[in-house]
Amino acid sequence: GKIELPPLQQPPDVLHELLTSNTPTSKKFRSHIRQYNAAFAFTSLGVSLDESLFQGTGAYAFRIHGQLAHRTGSLLPAAGQPIRYAQIYIIDSSEERVEARRQGNLNAQRGRRPANANDFVDADVWRELETMIEENHRFFGVYKQAYQIMREKPVEEQRDLQVHLRFKKHTDRRRYNLPNVAEGEIAAIIPGPGNIAHDSRDIVLRLNDGPLSRISDRHPAYHPLHYVLLFPYGEMGWHEEIPLAGENEAGRYKKVTRLMFMQHRLHTRFDQPASIFYACKLFHQYIVDGWACIEQSDLMFLRTHQNQLRRESYRGLADALNANDERDTADIGQPIILPSSFINSPCCMMQLFQDAMSICRYYLHPDLFITMTLLKKLDLLIVLLSTF
C-alpha cells in the first residue's frame, strides 16, 4: 500500500505474558491496565471523563467531554507536592520509585473509588514493569539525560533553565524511518533560558517550579510518552513528515495524515505483533485519544482557513450592520463556519436532510415503516447458527 510504517515490535516477555496469559495475575493486570499505565506514564492525561458510563454492567466505554491534552511538568516536584509521572524516573532507589507510584495511584483514585482502590497493585508486577521500561523505553534515557544536563548547571541558572525535546526531520524522504535517540533525531541537548524562542512542537522540560505545559500532538513522542504499556520501546507516533510510499506527485496527499496513521495502526496483520489489541481498556483509551487528535486538528484547520470557506458569503456581521439595528457590534462576534464535510456540523445535517428529501421527491413518500425484531433463542436461528 501507500502507507509504510515500521511495524511495532513484539513486546518484552514480561508484558507479553501479562497481556495474553490467563493466569489470575494477568487477568487482574488487564482489568486495571489503565491504572498501571498511568503509574508508569511520563505525561499526564488532561481530559474530562464521563463517569456515568463507568457505573454500568455492560461493555466498557471510554467517553470524554471537551478537549483532550497530554501535559508534562517539572522534573522535580514542588515543595509539599507528591512525586508523579516523569519525576518518578529521576529517583535512584527502586523501592522509592515503587512507593511513589503506589502513592500516586492512591491520590488519583481517591474520591472515585473505595478505600481498597489500590488492592490491584502487585509489587512484583510493578518491579518487573519498571525494569522493562528502564531497559527498553527510549525516553527513559532521554529524561535522565535532560535531568543531568540541568543539574550540572549553576544553581542560580537552574530555575529558568529549559531543555527541549525536538524532533528532527528525516533525510530519507522515501520512507518513514524510526527516529533514533543515539543519533540525535530526538534531541534532549538543547538547554537554554526560559525566554528563548522554541518550536511550538517542542516538548519543554524544566527542573523545578515549572507549570504544567501542554505537549503538541504534532510531536511524534505524543503517544509513546503516555502509553508506555502500548509502546514499551517508545515507538514514535504520527508526525507531519511521514511520506507516502512510492511516487505520488499527482495525488491529493503526499504525506501520511493522522487518519491514515491511525487506520494503519488499528489494522491487524498476520506478520506483525498485535499486542496493542490485547490492552483492553487502555486500547479503548488510545483509540479515543487518536480520534480526539484528529477531530481537534480538523477543527483547528477549519478555524484558520475560514477565508477558503468563503466566510463572507454567510450572512452574519454584514447583515447586522445593514439592518441598522442597535445591537453592540462587539456582541455579534465572529462565527466559525463548519462546512458540510465536517460530520455532525449543522451544514452536514442539513445536507443529509436535503438528500433524504430529494429521495422522497423522486420516489415519493414512503408508505410503510417496518420494524424487524428477532428472538435470539428462536429454534430455527439456533439450528442455522450451529452450522458455523
TrEMBL record:
Alphabetized InterPro entries for the sequence: Helitron_helicase-like
Pfam families registered for this protein in UniProt: Helitron_like_N (PF14214)
Superkingdom field: Eukaryota
Domain Helitron helicase-like: residue ranges: 261-373
PANTHER family: ATP-DEPENDENT DNA HELICASE (PTHR45786:SF74), DNA BINDING PROTEIN-LIKE (PTHR45786)
Protein name, entry field: Helitron helicase-like domain-containing protein
Lineage start: Eukaryota, Fungi, Dikarya, Basidiomycota, Agaricomycotina
